[in-house]
Amino acid sequence: MASLLHIDSSVRLQGSLSRQLGGEFLAQWQAANPSGTVVTRDLAAQPVPHLTEQMLGAYFTPAEQRNAEQAHTIKTSDVLVDELLAADTIVIGAPMYNFSVPSGLKAWIDHVARAGRTFKYGANGPEGLVHGKKVIVFVATGGVYSNGPAAAYDHVTTYLRAVLGFMGMTDVQFVVAEGVAMGEAAVASALEQSRSQLQAIAV
């Protein structure tokens, strides 16, 4: 049975283009996979904790050696990793905030980037352990960062491609609605282009 993990990180619960486009893809996926399962994580409505010293300590303590506090601390991370590993398709809504991803999405990444579970270090360096996933990332930006002088400020697509790839997820597609702060015509154009890309994605 097909399974999808849907992650939204925009703090705008209304009027968010990354939410809108991700939702449109989800509807498209569900129509093609009527018996498929969907797990939704809204990191704005239900934020996950940011990384702490206690959490980091629990990550690097073998399961059989964790004390009660560490076992409790790591529960959220284990659930989030399990959700990631169980999904065939992962949909991420990632608007650009100050040239990077929302802090809620970074917190989720800090939970799922786990040594021994989603990556490991071997004789040849780091190796991703999460394979066979299709990832679609919906990005919305106020300015234009795909080319031109502002391209160097794009720390959304570059970061996500790097960190997802580090965990082994290399089948990553970005659908970017850019320049949406440049007026209604720019928003309409960005949506049209994004929807064209969305329709081309195999579900």
How does the SSE layout of this entry go?
Elements: E1 3-8, H1 17-32, E2 37-42, H2 53-59, H3 68-73, H4 75-86, E3 89-93, H5 103-112, E4 119-122, E5 125-128, E6 134-140, H6 157-166, E7 172-177, H7 184-200
Parallel strand pairs: 1-2, 1-3, 3-6, 6-7
Antiparallel strand pairs: 4-5
The CATH class turns out to be Alpha Beta
> How many domains?
1
Widest sheet: strand order?
2-1-3-6-7
Could you tell me the radius of gyration in angstroms? 18 Å
Structural class: alpha/beta
**Regions with pLDDT < 50 over 5+ consecutive residues?**
none
Mean pLDDT: 95
Measured between the Cα atoms of the first and last residue, the distance is 13 Å
- Following the backbone from N to C, one meets helices and strands in this order, namely EHEHHHEHEEEHEH
**Assembly type:** single chain
Shape: globular
- What's the total number of strands? 7
Count of alpha/pi helices: 7
Q: In percent, how helical is the residue content?
A: 25-40%
Instruction: Name the CATH superfamily classification.
Output: Flavodoxin domain
Q: How is the biggest beta sheet arranged?
A: 5 strands, parallel
CATH topology title: Rossmann fold
Task: Please characterize this protein's 3D structure.
With 203 residues, the chain is an alpha/beta fold. It has a single domain, classed as Rossmann fold, CATH 3.40.50. It is built from 7 helices and 7 strands. The strands form 2 sheets. The chain has a 5-stranded parallel β-sheet with strand order 2-1-3-6-7, with helices on both faces. A two-stranded antiparallel ribbon has the order 4-5. The longest helix has 17 residues. The two termini are 13 Å apart. The relative contact order is 0.17. The mean pLDDT is 95.
